[in-house]
């Protein structure tokens, strides 16, 4: 398996009063880990713009995935999509990136969208472009070899010049946007792609006074090293399987997280290490964590996982809670940061034993716990994490 992967995060909001977004982002995953990412911005807004952007993105991503030429893609778009009677424009603007997993090369192709921004070591990285004329359209092309930790931003034109009312804020240009993102990276250098895209989207919304005058779409791409996380939740149904469960859990490399009081006691006994209580954090809604030598994080079980699930559902949607869990040190926040920001591959080791202490409390019942884990797995899959669940 390739030891790096491309983390892709998408954030968007519709123009005020519109039910559909006139922008569309399409992501195609190749067998070798490479990805094709297309951001298309349909002409105007609403239903027509949505159709235009979806068709444009689908045509480009499908044809490029099948190794068709850029010239064929553009000509197909021109011949397929209807022409606007007023402006005589046949298709939406677009940006797309072919991310090559084996070489870490990014081929960037852009037509009339805001210029893609690249960041390395917290600073904007300049790059050269070559321009081609295809069927009368000016297309720019760029090839960049990415490094681990690099970020890339693709944007629709709703990002530029965002402002209240009808007067455009000409100071909110590509240079100022890049400066804002640089400042964000100075505060924290390890945002996942979803949060990095959310940072720019939320700033644009503030410029619009939360009344966007255009569809806003931001797609962030981050090149990361593959890392593993192993999450142990609950004791096994058969007590004789404790040693087997622990051996498998600790045999995998990466981070090791243990959730649950009984589970942590079994883990401590297996490792012949004591459990030490940590300080109580300000967030009283989440139980305090513990420490066991040889384990990266020891937390309470169901209540903590419930909070992580809340963060995960928000993270895959509007991501409005990232400012909270990013900067907190309680167990749920630490697990969220690990799962969202740090790792690519996640192995759950789930014990099926029923906890008698939970049977009187419907909110943490056995069935509810299993449902929480299933929902958390579903949210992590939306983030393109590789997830495996082992039941005992």
TrEMBL record:
<protein>
    <submittedName>
        <fullName>Stage II sporulation protein E</fullName>
    </submittedName>
</protein>
<dbReference type="InterPro" id="IPR001932">
    <property type="entry name" value="PPM-type_phosphatase-like_dom"/>
</dbReference>
<dbReference type="GO" id="GO:0016791">
    <property type="term" value="F:phosphatase activity"/>
</dbReference>
<dbReference type="InterPro" id="IPR036457">
    <property type="entry name" value="PPM-type-like_dom_sf"/>
</dbReference>
<keyword id="KW-0378">Hydrolase</keyword>
<dbReference type="InterPro" id="IPR052016">
    <property type="entry name" value="Bact_Sigma-Reg"/>
</dbReference>
<feature type="domain" description="PPM-type phosphatase">
    <location>
        <begin position="7"/>
        <end position="223"/>
    </location>
</feature>
<dbReference type="Pfam" id="PF07228">
    <property type="entry name" value="SpoIIE"/>
</dbReference>
């Amino acid at each position: 398996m390739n030891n790096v992967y491309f983390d892709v995060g998408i954030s968007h909001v519709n123009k005020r009063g519109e039910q559909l977004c006139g922008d569309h982002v399409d992501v195609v995953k190749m067998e070798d880990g490479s990805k094709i990412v297309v951001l298309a911005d349909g002409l105007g807004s609403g239903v027509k713009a949505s159709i235009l952007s979806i068709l444009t993105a689908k045509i480009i991503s499908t044809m490029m995935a099948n190794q068709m030429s850029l010239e064929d893609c553009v000509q197909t778009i021109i011949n397929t999509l209807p022409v606007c009677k007023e402006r005589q424009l046949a298709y939406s603007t677009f940006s797309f990136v072919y991310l090559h997993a084996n070489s870490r090369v990014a081929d960037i192709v852009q037509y009339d969208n805001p210029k893609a921004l690249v960041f390395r070591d917290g600073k904007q990285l300049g790059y050269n472009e070559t321009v081609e004329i295809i069927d009368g359209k000016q297309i720019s092309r760029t090839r960049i070899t990415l490094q681990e930790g690099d970020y890339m931003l693709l944007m629709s034109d709703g990002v530029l010049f965002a402002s209240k009312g009808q007067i455009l804020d000409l100071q909110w240009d590509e240079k100022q946007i890049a400066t804002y993102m640089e400042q964000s990276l100075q505060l924290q250098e390890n945002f996942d792609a979803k949060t990095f895209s959310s940072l720019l989207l939320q700033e644009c919304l503030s410029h619009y006074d939360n009344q966007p005058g255009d569809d806003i779409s931001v797609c962030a791409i981050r090149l990361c090293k593959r890392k593993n996380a192993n999450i142990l939740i609950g004791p096994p149904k058969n007590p004789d399987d404790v040693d087997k469960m622990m051996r498998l859990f600790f045999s995998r490399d990466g981070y090791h997280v243990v959730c649950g009081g009984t589970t942590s006691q079994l883990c401590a006994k297996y490792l012949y290490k004591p459990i030490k209580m940590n300080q109580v954090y300000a967030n009283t809604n989440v139980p305090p964590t513990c420490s066991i030598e040889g384990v990266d994080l020891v937390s309470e079980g169901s209540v903590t996982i419930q909070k992580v699930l809340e963060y995960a559902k928000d993270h895959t949607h509007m991501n409005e809670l990232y400012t909270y869990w990013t900067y907190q040190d309680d167990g749920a926040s630490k697990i969220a940061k690990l799962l969202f920001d740090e790792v690519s591959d996640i192995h759950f080791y789930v014990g099926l034993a029923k906890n008698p202490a939970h049977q009187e409390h419907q909110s943490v019942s056995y069935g509810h716990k299993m449902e929480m884990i299933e929902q958390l797995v579903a949210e992590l899959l939306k983030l393109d994490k590789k997830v495996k669940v082992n039941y005992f």
